[in-house]
């Protein structure tokens, strides 16, 4: 993930200053530049690798990449947040560890472009800038992957479709970085639009857009508790879901994915499923129903009912998927008591990160500061970062 330090201010034009940043780092002008947005997971927690339906929205926080071809095989990657340049060899792409691990995302993109598209950008130098807080559940990694893919493909004389962007990004994260994420992050980042929610069928990869009512507002409250998707807790949940899916496949011929299990089938098996596996299955089955409920409520413009689904989703993540934490739970509880808040839940992988709140326009900065202040007092920490999000267009090349 990118460092949260030294980020571009969120109110700034995300394209301003990128060529200058490149010139300050490498001299001269870049040959290609691209940007990709962060995303909030609206609902559908951990459904994207369980055959369910998920929903996300792109937000006005971006990763930007500017790149230039070299005449040799050297790869130079510079992130303003980390302040150091990582060097690699285009003929031998190797995974990095420690302080250089952030470079695995663009390096993984190069490996995926080669493997999936036969593209060879060769040696290059690239600068990376971000206004997305890393570790906040806003998918800075997918944004980095897609912005890198667009810029690097252009260096190789190719353009990528949105579908290809998703494939390249997922391949980079799953196969090179080694994080078993599903379709939500890259698909939302690629297909997102202003004033729209992206609904994704994780069985087929198909996505559709549903309008976000004009009166809806999205707020993000960061806990400051960093989550790492590659850690043992995430991997354990992934394995438990696989075990649950395999259990139901043997009992019900029509079940291919865990999200295919009906509530009735789940109840019948409740007494024979291992406790942890049963909890994970209960979350996936109920969450899949909530996504469909959310889609219907948004199309009707019923934000109050949509918000109830968010609170229910968080409770399920907390009690059954067990990927919440005290900090996330506290923020959701505080937001529940605020006027103008329709609903709130953890967003992203969990185990820390951020809470998403769906509100009316009447929810104010003063209320947000009040919630943040209560959090700081309760946990004896600095106030968490809080910001209102506007929806944003998906990943794209930039004009130079």
Notes on the protein architecture:
The protein is 40% helix and 21% strand. The chain is an alpha+beta fold. The chain folds into two domains: 18-214, Ribosomal Protein S5, domain 2 (2-Layer Sandwich), CATH 3.30.230.10; 217-389, Alpha-Beta Plaits (2-Layer Sandwich). The strands form two sheets. Strands 1, 2, 3, 4, 5, 6, 7 and 12 form an eight-stranded mixed sheet that branches. It has a four-stranded antiparallel sheet with strand order 9-10-8-11. A hairpin with a 5-residue loop joins strand 6 (196-201) and strand 7 (207-211). The radius of gyration is 21 Å and the shape is globular. The chain starts with 17 loop residues before the first helix and ends with a strand. Mean pLDDT is 91; it is low at 1-12.
SSE order and pairing:
Elements lengths: L17 H9 L5 E12 L9 E17 L4 E6 L5 E5 L14 H14 L6 E7 L9 H16 L6 H16 L6 H8 L4 E6 L5 E5 L5 E6 L9 H20 L11 H7 L5 H26 L2 H19 L4 H11 L4 E7 L6 E6 L5 H15 L6 E4 L6 E2 L3
Parallel strand pairs: 3-5
Antiparallel strand pairs: 1-2, 1-12, 2-5, 2-6, 3-4, 6-7, 8-10, 8-11, 9-10
Helix pairs in contact: 2-3, 2-4, 3-4, 3-5, 4-5, 6-8, 8-9, 10-11
β-strand percent reads 15-25%
- What name is given to the CATH topology of the largest domain? Ribosomal Protein S5, domain 2
Helix content: 40-55%
- Most strands sheet: 8 strands, mixed
Task: Based on Cα principal axes, name the global outline.
Answer: globular
Structural class: alpha+beta
The tally of domains stands at 2
Query: What is the CATH architecture annotation of the largest domain?
Result: 2-Layer Sandwich
Oligomeric state of shown chains: single chain
Number of strands: 12
């Amino acid at each position: 993930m990118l460092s949260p330090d030294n980020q571009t201010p969120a109110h700034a034009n995300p394209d301003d200053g990128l060529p200058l940043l490149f010139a300050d780092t490498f001299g001269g002008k870049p040959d290609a530049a691209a940007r990709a947005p962060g995303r909030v997971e609206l609902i559908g927690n951990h459904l994207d690798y369980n055959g369910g339906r998920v929903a996300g929205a792109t937000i006005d926080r971006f990763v930007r990449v500017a790149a230039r071809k070299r005449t040799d095989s050297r790869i130079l990657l510079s992130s303003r947040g980390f302040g150091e340049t990582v060097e690699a060899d285009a003929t031998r792409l190797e995974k990095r560890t420690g302080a250089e691990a952030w470079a695995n995302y663009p390096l993984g993109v190069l490996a995926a472009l080669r493997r999936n598209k036969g593209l060879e950008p060769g040696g290059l130098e690239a600068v990376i800038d971000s206004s997305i807080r890393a570790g906040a559940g806003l998918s800075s990694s997918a944004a980095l992957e897609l912005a890198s893919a667009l810029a690097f493909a252009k260096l190789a004389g190719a353009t990528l479709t949105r579908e290809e962007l998703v494939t390249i990004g997922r391949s980079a994260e799953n196969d090179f970085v080694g994080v078993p994420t599903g379709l939500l992050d890259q698909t939302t980042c690629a297909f997102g639009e202003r004033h729209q929610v992206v609904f994704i069928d994780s069985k087929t990869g198909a996505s559709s857009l549903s309008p976000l009512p004009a009166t809806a507002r999205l707020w993000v409250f960061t806990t400051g508790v960093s989550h790492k998707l590659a850690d043992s807790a995430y991997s354990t949940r992934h394995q438990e879901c696989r075990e649950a899916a395999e259990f139901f496949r043997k009992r019900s011929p029509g079940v291919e994915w865990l999200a295919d299990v009906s509530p009735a089938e789940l109840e019948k098996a409740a007494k024979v499923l291992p406790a942890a596996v049963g909890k994970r299955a209960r979350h996936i089955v109920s969450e899949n129903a909530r996504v469909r409920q959310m889609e219907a409520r948004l199309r009707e413009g019923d934000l109050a009912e949509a918000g109830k689904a968010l609170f229910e989703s968080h409770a399920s993540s907390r009690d059954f998927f067990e990927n919440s934490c005290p900090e996330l739970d506290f923020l959701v509880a505080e937001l529940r008591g605020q006027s103008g808040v329709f609903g709130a839940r953890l967003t992203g992988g969990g185990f820390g990160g951020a809470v998403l709140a769906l509100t009316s326009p009447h929810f104010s900065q003063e209320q947000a500061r009040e919630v943040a202040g209560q959090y700081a007092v309760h946990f004896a920490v600095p106030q968490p970062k809080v910001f209102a999000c506007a929806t944003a267009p998906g990943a794209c090349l930039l004009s130079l």
